[in-house]
Design a protein that fits this description.
The complex is a heterotrimer. Chain A is mainly alpha-helical. Chain A contains 14 helices and 2 strands. The chains are: A mainly alpha, B alpha/beta, C mainly alpha. Chains A and C meet through helix 1, helix 2, helix 5, helix 6 and helix 8 of A and helix 1, helix 3, helix 4, helix 5 and helix 6 of C.
Chain lengths: 288, 460, 301
């Protein structure tokens, strides 16, 4: 067997992928540990120890960045996990126009985040936007979606869900379709309702799909940048700044060392949250 | 058990790998402090340019120059008009390399310079932002060029670094002031305020008349800075040493009451409810429209906005007047002036001679006349002998008075290299009541610290 | 892990999983009611924003500034779209060329290198070295890239601002996701396939390229669709690694137009419509295949 392995599954197959991966991803990541401790202009650097980290943590905008990033990731991830499951179950049932609905839900995924951000920031205009004019027609006084500091972040998160729900739903559809039909038939013979089927078969047996959605959505949420940048640029003030947008602002300002320190903080933060989550989820996975 | 050791081993291996890599890179970088990267890259660009321009060695042949310029406003169109003439007169074709404006564009310029990929010519900010891109290394010294003789010293000082002049002016000066609708002023019987309290009293009357007293357009965050930046005349009149002390880390916005006042001026119109509805969703262009049609009466803005008003609402342009951001006493009342952008030559360009020729043509009477035919002056010119035309905007004529009386001061960014990148976000936060003026000033002082350290200024 | 996987290959997808147990007349009525309800909801939530963008791209500036959905009083379709295409020296046309080229190149490289890597990583699952590599791949899925150091590295090897550079960055950043999908799918291919090929005298290379790779087609389709969307719609990486107006990609163009057309919503929307078309076409071709590839991949990811 080992002979077979060496000959057939040669490590040479890994070389192209890992060479690219090493040079363009791993190496910069490792270098970032060094550059985060410098004051850097791309051509010159001074080593300044942990000063950048100190600056980063003393920035008022950063604590808000941590909090916002967590809220954003939790909200988008939670909604995608729940709505995706419901939609996935719904769209694998005997509903009419199933294929049409699947396509429609997947549509926003095809659009660029920037385009979606621009369109929705116009739709969310506090007095002239379509959302609030429609609400006004129903007699509801809509809020300033992107200007109200209490809800601006949530508004962007909702748009994120609108755009990203398609992928989550497709993953669920794939997972639910893989559940053997006999289970449902057995339950039916026992007289179980469709609610029971959902609760006792669909939900537990689509756990692997759910785990994928949780991981992808949560990490995506923590790293999110495009949408917030297209819609609010972190504003008003700093109320919707995410860590990624703060990093970009430091980069724009030419504070390359500081931006890189932010990058390191983000990657440590993501690792601390995502790896344990991943470990935890894969442990409890239900295998078919 | 086995799996755990495997995992631990994986972890240890990865740590070792990272440490090894870090050590390797660390020592490599120590010796390379003088950046072989840039040299390599410049060489590379040069050779590329060489290939492109091999045919241009003979002077009769056409030379193509690249020119990087921002995409907002009318500067580009005006430059293109000059470029078209230059093509006929000098046999120089200009290719435009369009960059975004604002911090986005600043960043692009920094990256392009750092990686040795700058265009032959560049239109870029003057003052502190110029200093942040290391002109000594990147731009051609034009101190002794004859064509610079007519450029006024007031402009030269903002493109001078270490005693050398680097740029020629693109356009006229402008002021950071309050644009107001004169028609509404007439209808409501208001007079131009001399002090801040008179200004607030006018606001109250305007509000009572059912109009927006102070237009804010915080969707375009940069527009929120004017009450701070445009207030500098008042600040320097009361604290003459502020710029120096501020540059040397001795004066702070939060602890200098006259400087803190600028943040308070940002806060007060919001607190008094003088601002337009939806000001967080309002853009610069919408704000200009409100001002032009009289639904909004005061708009703190750069006078270069007059040009955009002309484009969008040509029939309303002479309804718009200009007055300085008022101080607290009538004795102190003057304009904070912005110098125009500069035209710079890339020092490492292979076509420096052609670039100089273009620059010479650009600042000549002829070049300036073509430029002015596309962009009307938003303030006095900074080239000797080029007067304001008779058909100058009403607002600009109102400004002239302050220039004649010597009641002007360059904005802080032209007298100090320190400008924090987050000011616009902080003024939005202060101007929409998210944080107090005091907190905004404190945060801005912290923001400045980063810039000063990045620039390696002494005393920080 | 790979036990019982053949079931997952079931591409039926549309099996009746939640069946309505009431077989009375009301059942049919209920179905229709649900269908109508879902149609209305999907229209409100998904179609209205599209409609809004498209219809406003047909209006003139003044009308589009009203930000409503009413039928245009006059149509300016050709005019608007021509304006967008010719703006800034046909920047959008150039951007389309750049984006297409970038997408095709990076997806091609990505597919080949990730399939190869996914194959060997799965077959060697459990080995010490491959565990470490798996860890690295997983890390790449989670840890955001270090941006400025990447610029520095690209610059060092002379690939900054080049198509080759951005292509390789895109490959590197999307490699973890593709490799994990491939790995999971390879797990569903029984080893007997490899063994019988070896008995027929095929080497590792021939086994992979002529037998395994064709079998990976479902997941390859999935990756083509999902990653093409990601690369074509990518904003951040070109923003950082591929600057310069000659290098513009469609997303950067849109971003630039945001400041250029600040009050001309009609033109901004026309731009959005134009740059959304390529991915819509791709989706129409590959629509059916997405779920199939996902089944093995992401579900077991």
């Amino acid at each position: 067997m080992t002979k077979l392995k060496i000959r057939t599954y040669s490590y040479i197959f890994l070389v192209p992928a890992f060479l690219i991966y090493f040079v363009f991803y791993l190496l910069p990541t490792v270098l970032s540990l060094f550059f985060s401790m410098t004051r850097w202009t791309l051509t010159h650097w001074n080593f300044i120890g942990f000063d950048n980290y100190v600056t980063f943590f003393s920035e008022t905008a950063l604590s808000i960045g941590f909090r916002n990033t967590l809220i954003y990731a939790a909200v988008t991830c939670g909604l995608k996990v729940i709505l995706g499951l419901l939609l996935g179950a719904f769209l694998t049932s005997t509903v009419l126009f199933k294929n049409y609905l699947r396509s429609v839900i997947f549509f926003p995924t095809l659009l660029s985040t920037i385009a979606v951000g621009i369109a929705f920031s116009i739709l969310m205009h506090p007095s002239q936007g379509l959302i609030n004019t429609s609400l006004a027609a129903l007699g509801i006084n809509g809020p300033d979606w992107l200007g109200n500091t209490k809800i601006a972040l949530l508004s962007v998160a909702l748009v994120d869900v609108w755009k990203g729900i398609g992928v989550a739903t497709v993953i669920y559809i794939a997972g639910i379709s893989a559940i053997p039909g006999e289970y449902y038939e057995a339950l039916k013979i026992d007289g179980g309702s469709s609610m029971n089927a959902f609760r006792y078969i669909t939900v537990p047996l689509s756990r692997p799909a759910m785990n994928s959605v949780i991981i992808l959505a949560f990490i995506g949420g923590l790293r999110s940048f495009d949408l917030i940048w297209a819609m609010t640029k972190g504003g008003p003030g700093f109320t919707t700044d995410l860590i990624a947008s703060i990093i970009y602002k430091q980069y724009q300002a030419g504070f390359y060392g500081l931006a890189t320190a932010g990058n390191v903080i983000l990657f440590v933060g993501v690792s601390l949250l995502a790896f344990p989550l991943y470990r935890y989820l894969t442990k409890g996975e239900v295998y078919l | 058990m086995n799996r755990t050791t495997g995992r631990a081993l994986t972890f240890v291996t990865s740590v070792i790998m990272i440490v090894a890599l870090l050590a390797g890179c660390g020592s490599g970088s120590g010796s390379g402090n003088n950046s072989p990267t840039t040299k390599n890259n410049t060489g590379d660009t040069n050779s590329k340019t060489n290939v492109k321009t091999e045919a241009t060695n003979a002077p009769v042949e056409k030379t193509t120059l690249t020119l990087m310029v921002g995409n907002t406003g009318t500067t580009l169109d005006a430059l293109k008009a000059v470029g078209t003439e230059a093509e006929k007169k000098l046999n120089i074709t200009i290719e435009y390399d369009i960059k975004p404006d604002g911090t986005e564009g600043d960043n692009l310029v920094k990256t392009r310079l750092a990686t040795g990929d700058m265009s032959d010519l560049l239109v870029y900010n003057t003052g502190s932002l110029l200093k942040a891109v290391n002109p000594v290394e990147n731009f051609l010294d034009v101190t002794n060029e004859t064509f610079m003789a007519d450029v006024l010293d007031s402009f030269k000082t903002v493109v001078t670094v270490d005693g050398k002049v680097y740029g020629a002016p693109v356009g006229s000066s402008s002021a950071g002031a309050i644009l107001y609708n004169k028609k509404v002023y007439g209808e409501l019987g208001l007079t131009v305020p001399q002090t801040w309290s008179e200004f607030m009293a006018n606001n109250e009357k305007i509000k009572a008349a059912g109009k927006t007293a102070v237009i804010a357009s915080y969707k375009d965050t940069w527009t929120s800075q004017l009450f701070v930046l445009g207030d500098y005349y008042n600040l320097q009149a009361q604290v003459p040493n502020f710029a120096d002390d501020y540059t040397n880390n001795k004066a702070k916005y939060a602890t200098t009451p006259q400087a803190l006042r600028s943040f308070e001026k940002t806060e007060e119109p919001f607190k008094a409810g003088y601002m337009n509805k939806d000001f967080l969703a309002t853009t610069y262009d919408v704000a200009l429209k409100m001002l032009a049609d009289g639904s909004g009466v005061h708009y703190p803005m750069l006078t270069s906005a007059l040009d955009s008003i002309l484009q969008n609402s040509p029939d309303k342009i002479n309804d718009i007047g200009v007055f300085p951001i008022p101080g607290d006493s009538a004795d102190v009342n003057g304009l904070t002036v912005w110098m125009p952008s500069g035209l710079y030559i890339n020092k490492n360009s292979k076509k420096v001679e052609a670039a100089k020729k273009f620059m010479e043509y650009f600042v000549s009477k002829e070049g300036q006349a073509i430029f002015a035919s596309k962009v009307k002056a938003a303030g006095p010119n900074v080239i000797k002998g080029i007067e304001l035309p008779d058909d100058a905007y009403e607002g600009v004529k109102e400004m002239q008075k302050y220039f004649d009386e010597g009641k002007t001061s360059p904005a802080l960014e032209f007298v100090s290299p320190v400008k924090g990148p987050n000011l616009e976000n902080l003024t939005v936060a202060v101007g929409s009541g998210i944080i107090s003026a005091q907190k905004g000033a404190e945060d801005y002082d912290k923001d400045i610290l980063k810039q000063a350290q990045q620039l390696n200024l002494p005393g920080w | 892990m790979s036990r019982g996987m053949s079931r997952i290959m079931d591409k039926g997808g549309g099996k009746a999983l939640i069946r309505d147990e009431n077989r009375g007349i009301s059942s049919g009525a209920k179905r229709v009611l649900i269908a109508v309800l879902t149609l209305v909801l999907s229209t409100v939530i998904f179609w209205i924003p599209f409609y809004f963008v498209i219809i406003n791209s047909f209006k003139n500036q003044a009308e589009s500034a009203l930000m409503n959905m009413s039928w245009p009083k006059s149509f300016h379709i050709l005019e608007n779209y021509r304006n967008v295409l010719t703006a800034a020296d046909h920047m959008l046309v150039r951007a389309f060329y750049n984006s297409m080229l970038l997408t095709v190149l990076s997806i091609s490289v990505l597919i080949i290198v990730s399939a190869m890597a996914g194959f060997v990583l799965q077959r060697r699952e459990g080995g010490r070295c491959s565990s470490f590599l798996n860890f690295l791949v997983l890390a790449g899925l989670m840890i955001p890239p270090a941006i400025v150091p990447t610029i520095w590295v690209l610059d060092l090897i002379g690939l900054f601002k080049t198509l080759a550079g951005i292509t390789l960055v895109e490959v590197a950043l999307h490699f973890p996701f593709a490799a994990i999908l491939y790995k999971a799918f390879v797990a569903t291919l029984p080893r007997e396939i490899d063994e019988s090929a070896l008995i027929d005298g095929a080497g590792g290379g021939r086994l992979f390229f002529s037998i395994i790779f064709p079998l990976l087609k479902p997941v390859t389709s999935t990756i083509i669709v999902l990653e093409s969307i990601n690369v074509f719609n990518d904003f951040v990486n070109p923003l950082y690694f591929f600057p310069g107006s000659a290098n513009a990609t469609v997303q950067l163009t849109l971003y630039n137009f945001m400041s250029r057309f600040t009050t001309s919503w009609n033109l901004l929307f026309a731009d959005i419509v134009l740059i959304s078309i390529p991915m819509l076409i791709l989706f129409i071709f590959f629509n059916k295949k997405i779920v199939a590839g996902m089944t093995a991949g992401a579900v077991k990811g």
